[in-house]
Each structure stands twice: as structure tokens, then as C-alpha cells.
Amino acid sequence: MPRPAIDPIRGATVLITGAARGMGELYARRAAREGARAIALWDVDEERASALAAELSTTGVDARAYGVDVSDLAAVRAAAARVVADLGAPRILINNAGIVRGAPFWEHDSERDTDLTMRINTLAPMWLTREVLPAMIADRSRPQRVLNIASAAGTLANPNMSVYAASKWALIGWSESVRLELARAGHRHIAVTTFCPSYISTGMFEGARGPLLTPIMTPEQATDAAWRGMVRGTPMVMRPWTVKLAMALRGVLPTRAWDAVAGRVFKVYSSMDHFVGRG
């Protein structure tokens, strides 16, 4: 899809969740470089987000930090209202915040692990998008964007990440459905992009091993691919190319045959065996 005639980033208010570090920080820096007027940095680590906001503000962008627990619906609603009051309605929304617990399902704590993962990875993007979407729909003067950070784990089952995979499968289905609903309703000035990367070296998946032909990406590589896709309005971005290959093979092979290929050939099923996470 070609780049839009009107740059959706320049002059826009950008809202990023999980913005204090890792890929969220890179999205914020990219937004500042490409001419965003204002950037709302949401993170539970308000101190770190504030330091980044102060640094970005020296470049001329109005960057502000908000300490937000996105697993709390009331907090999301209150913070969204504060952003609108402080910076104006966001035209670019990047649902980046996420957590992972790498363990067999029966070792997950229902409240601390399962509920929290679903709230942060799945419900929070739904809640926040619902808060900002009406203003996006009403403003047809410029192109607007929603970027949802999903995962290759949302396209294929993998041992030791059952709840994480479930959260990302749900996110992908919701994100794609919203994209179609907007297009069907004639709101084509809003493009929804779903990003499905394999492992990224942010520390979140420390210890995980990339499957065959699937190198672990740097955060810079991943954010660049997602950002370019978002600006162009690409519906779905998958990186690296083996994510699509695996989906295609899983679609055509019988389940047991795919299990053999994924487990013995591509080593997908053992990729989380040495996972330790961010710690």
C-alpha cells in the first residue's frame, strides 16, 4: 500500500502505551522525529516515562508522561480524558503495552497471571481504542491510525505461552474485525494495523530461542516494520517472513503432521524451553 498523500504523523497527537522503554520508547522517538505535535507517554513506570518526556520535549514536541495502569478500566478512561484535555484528541494510537508469563498453563496463577495478562494484552487495547475512536471517526480532515502490537504467538500455538498466545489471538481477531467495521461504515480515513512479530530482543522474551530460519529481531527492526506499515495503513504486518510461512503450513497440513514439522524441523515447540523473561 503506498504512503498516504497526507502524512498522518506530522502535526498529530500520538498516544503510546508501554512507552517508557523498549519498543514503546522507540515509537515515541520516531513520532518526535517525524513531526508529531504532541506525544502522550503512558506507562506504569511514570518516573521513567517522565524522563523520556523531558528529553523529547527538548526537540520541540509537547511530550507528557502519564502513570497509567492499563489493566484498570477506570484508570484508562480517566487518563484518556486527561490526554484530550491536555493535548487534544489523539490521531495516532499505538497499543504497545504487554506482558508475558512463560510457563505451562497449570502453573499460571489465575489472578496474577491469567487475568492480568488478558487485561493488559487484550482488554486494555479494546478499552483505550473505544475511548478515542469516536473522536477519530468524527475528524475526517486527516488520516488517522491505530497500531495494535500483537504477536506471532497469536497465529500459532506454542507450549509454555498458552495464556500469552490466547491474549494475542484475541487481540488479532478484535483488531481485524474493527478494521473491517470501520471500512464497511465508510470511515476509511482511519486505518488499523495489526503487527505480528516473532521474538524481539527487548528482554521481555529473554532466554527464548528463535525457530529455524527465524532470527530474533532487534527492537529497531521490529518498530521500523510496524511503523512503516502503520503509516501506509497496511492491515497486517508479519515479521520475519517465516511467520507467514508457518501460518500457511499450519493451514494446509493435518494437525499431527504440523506438530511434527513445527516440533522437529522448525523447533517452534521448543523455542520457550529456556525462557527466563525480563526478571
Strand content: 5-15%
Mean pLDDT: 95
Q: What is the CA–CA distance across the termini?
A: 39 Å
Task: Characterize the overall form.
Answer: globular
How would you explain this protein's 3D organization?
The structure is a single chain. The protein is of the alpha/beta class and 279 residues long. It has one domain (13-265): 3-Layer(aba) Sandwich (Rossmann fold). The protein is built from 8 helices and 7 strands; from the N terminus they run βαβαβαβαβαβαβαα. A 7-stranded parallel beta sheet has the order 3-2-1-4-5-6-7, with helices on both faces. α6 (219-232) links the parallel β6 and β7. The chain is globular, with a radius of gyration of 18 Å. The N and C termini lie far apart (39 Å). The mean pLDDT is 95. Belongs to the short-chain dehydrogenases/reductases (SDR) family.
List the helices and strands and how they pair.
Elements lengths: L12 E5 L4 H12 L4 E6 L2 H12 L4 E6 L5 H15 L4 E4 L14 H29 L5 E6 L12 H23 L5 E8 L21 H14 L3 E4 L2 H11 L2 H11 L14
Parallel strand pairs: 1-2, 1-4, 2-3, 4-5, 5-6, 6-7
Structure in a nutshell:
This protein has 279 residues and is an alpha/beta fold.
Descriptive keywords:
14% strand; 279 residues; Sc_DH/Rdtase_CS
